[in-house]
Amino acid sequence: MVGGAGALALAGCTTTQNGGDGGDGGSDDGLAGEVNIAGSSTVFPLSTRMSELFREDHPDVAFNIQSTGSGGGFQNHFCPGNTDFNNASRPIKPEEEDLCADNKVEPVELQVATDALTVIVNNDADWIDCITVEDLEAIWSGDSPPSMWSDVNSDWPDEEFALFGPTEASGTFDYFLEAIIGEEGTHRQDHQATEQDRTIIQGVQESPYAMGYLGFAYYSENTDAVKALAIDDGEGCVEPSLETAKAGDYTPLARPLFTYPAKSALAEEHIAEFARFWIENSSSREIVANDVGYVPLDDTQQSEQMDTLEAAIEEAQG
């Protein structure tokens, strides 16, 4: 489903240089410069795809996009003033806003899609197709975490869990913690943590008693490699999909995805134009859903985000 963008997304970093694969010659509008983006591994494939499409008309604009995790991006790249955008799979935290303010960086929050955070198991896990929120909490909570499947459900195997997931720097980690375990709870620390979603896929694929969680786009391009679990929040089992996330049925794991340009960076015309391009296409089913694997914004959401962006550009360039 993800195609070319997916290959870059799994790599975790992409750089395009002027005169590279974006076209045979320079653009005739004089748009040129570099765009530096860090942050969420979940938003990474979407930002990569948008940059590829943008460079088809503006090959003199180069992109450096890193998958660092939402928190890692804010802490180490964006708030210190080293990147123009930070992708995030959850809203910016107050302490991150404070760090940005200390460095005179003003983030502009833009929603760019909706995700269906996906829980995956090995294809041979024939004892489970749906899991309750309560069982997910029991498995992943740091409060007396179970070691074996049968510790949670006696019908499940007497086999140890092999758990794979994101690091604490990830917005996916933060969202899962809040949605499944609760803000006052703790996430178990003995899972194999990584910012590389392909490592989560591979770990679950290779371990018969594994479980992991990650963004829907990464699952959608690996549907033959692992199995996604339906989620039962008390209203019945609902499978992760673009349709169930858009309809609001996939609760509590449907979530908004963001990018945060720095307002000062929008003073640069090539950065402002890329931000406009991204939001203009955030309602595109072909790009957001078919190319990448997320739920596009509806027209009202897209218009609201564009109003926010245009106000920020006007202030930055005024």
Protein architecture, described:
Residues 1-11 and 18-24 have low confidence and may be disordered. The longest helix is centred in the C-terminal third of the chain and has 19 residues, at 299-317. The chain is an alpha/beta fold and 318 residues long. It contains 12 helices and 14 strands. The protein folds into 2 domains: 4-114 and 256-317, Periplasmic binding protein-like II (D-Maltodextrin-Binding Protein, domain 2, 3-Layer(aba) Sandwich); 116-254, Periplasmic binding protein-like II (D-Maltodextrin-Binding Protein, domain 2, 3-Layer(aba) Sandwich), CATH 3.40.190.10. Helix content is 37%, strand content 19%. The protein has a 6-stranded mixed β-sheet. Helix 2 crosses helix 11 (285-292) and helix 10 runs antiparallel to helix 12.
Identify the quaternary structure here: single chain
Strand order of the largest sheet: 1-3-2-4-14-5
Order of SSEs, N→C? Answer: HEEHEHEHEEEHEHEHEHEEEHEHHH
Number of domains: 2
Per CATH, the superfamily of the largest domain is Periplasmic binding protein-like II
pLDDT below 50 for ≥5 consecutive residues: which ranges?
Answer: 1-11, 18-24
Determine the N-to-C terminus distance: 41 Å
Gyration radius over CA: 20 Å
Q: What coarse outline follows from CA principal-axis ratios? A: elongated
